[in-house]
Amino acid sequence: MHRTRKAAPAFRTARLASCALLATAAALTGCERGSSDGADETATGPSGCPTVQARAREAVTRAERTDIPWGGPTNGPEAVSGKSIVYVAQTMTNPGVAGAANGVREAARAIGWNVRVIDGGGTPAGIQAAMSEAVALRPSGIVIGGFDPDSTAQQAARANAQRIPLIGWHAVPDPGPSRQPDLFTNVTTRVEDVARISAQWIISDSNGRAGVVLITDASIPFARNKSDLIREELESCEGVRLLSVENIPIPDASSRTPREISSLLSRFPDRWTHSVAINDLYFADAAPAFRAAGVKGSGPPFNIGAGDGDPSAFQRINARQYQAATVPEPLSLQGWQIVDEFNRAFSGRPDSGYVAPVHIATAGNSEGATSWDPSGYREDYRKIWGR
């Protein structure tokens, strides 16, 4: 894996050099940076961005480290017994949602609680029905798993009235407690950190010259905010052109992504060098279309997932099959954190305040891995809980 991955820069240099010649010609016609379908738009800017690129490379080097120690809480209340948790999932086809749910299950076994997962199926009606069912069960706590709490405002209000604490996973843009909506805390990496490092990887990987396709799900506020932040960071490099922003709802990804990828390959046959998606699953669905078009799995385009990092993403990265990198959430860790946060809520304590750092997984630093988590958290949480 390492040897074939290391061979890529030479190819990219030649590829990007030819793009640069096209970019110079385009500059004379007055093309502007940004999303465009215009025939005169080039995939690369005229001169790159040396200062921004250097800063991006430093940030990426730090984020690629795998020797990150556990930096979360080491003290807190002992385990409260006899609790039950309901995890309401936006859709269990979303690998991030499912991965966090599995972490909650694992942690609940360790602390001695019961967990039930209710799948909202990715539709507003399904999520509302799942949330209604969760509140009707009168559990000790409810997890808002990857959807906007405002979409279930009535159900959330009933839970609040019944003093059932709500904890979000990627439910609102920021980590920590929320008052509107009323969440004890929201467990997530900082979306601005994930967005920034994803864009910086593209800037660094392309030497400041790239033609980028951005894939998002605008129906999810968290995802929409992430893609907006990615776009802003990409625009900090004058050599990067955003060719297209594709809005593909996650529940429709399997049916729509192959069709959109085929269209993009037709529209940008020579200009598309990199892709960034708010979720890794898009690249699983994109692979058949790339393969049918004769695109090599090792790229270009070189694809990075700005979030989740499910096992299939690691498999694609290490096999060099239509994904080069991911910014993985520590999904199992976050499940354990959710359980710990509930234990703090049940004990009348404030939230832990912990936010996991961002990490970039590539073929160079994740060979054989299927997930990403800092080491040591299971042992420390067990010590905190007295388990």
Automatic annotation (TrEMBL):
Instruction: State the residue spans of region: Disordered.
Output: 33-52
Coiled coil, from the record: none
Pfam families linked: Peripla_BP_4
Keywords for this protein: Signal
Q: Where is the signal peptide?
A: 1-25
Matching entries from SUPFAM superfamilies are given as: Periplasmic binding protein-like I (SSF53822)
Q: Where is the Periplasmic binding protein domain?
A: 85-341
- Known PROSITE patterns for this protein? PROKAR_LIPOPROTEIN
- Protein's UniProt name: Sugar ABC transporter substrate-binding protein
